[in-house]
Amino acid sequence: MCFYNSMSKKAKELAARYGRNLSVVEIAEKILEEQEQYRVNAFTFPDYPIITADPEVQSFKWGLIPFWVKDKKQADEIKRMTLNARADTIFQKPSFRDPIIKKRCIVPSTGYFEWRHEGDKKIPYYIYVKDESIFSMAGVYDSWLDKSTGEIVNTFSIIITDANPLTAYIHNTKHRMPAILSTEDEERWLDPRLAKTDIEGLLHPFPVEKMEAYIIKNDFLRKKGDDPGHT
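Now predict its structure.
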């Protein structure tokens, strides 16, 4: 699964990487300028920069809330189950079957965190794409209207697929990894005209030879302001 992502680049670098404008104030000031996010915990339902077909960098919350959700109570319940979307069921699940066709996005990353289980031990790893300072995870998004406040809440989910040999060794319980897009497929992924078969063809394990990983400190999630570093 993918619940701990990394974004250690400034907003201007992110905008330049994807050829997007940067006029969204909360991206520039709240998310990536005042304090760089090295590790982002999905279970806090954070604001995070994503890329859509829109010419601007967007700021959405992690944990997809479908447009059809009735109230805040239901929204709070469902977002805990939609941090990730499985590629093998995404076209069938009510939360994702509309977004996967019409509302696809890119979730930028500089790396992500996963654990290997060895008996009672959990060994944390930092996993990243070689030769790419920012790479692209496939995602879906939706917009929900909170009728009690009139607020439109924009949210997203990261799509996960089968693991390649490297990530299967690390994530040795679920054998999953985020669906990572090649740079050549990024804008194609965002094209709303893409057919279902073409969408499915992009949700495959990323080539193992293009990825690397290393063991990090066990307490990296409890520390603020520190990079995870090797053990």
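The CA atoms of residues 13 and 79 lie 29 Å apart.
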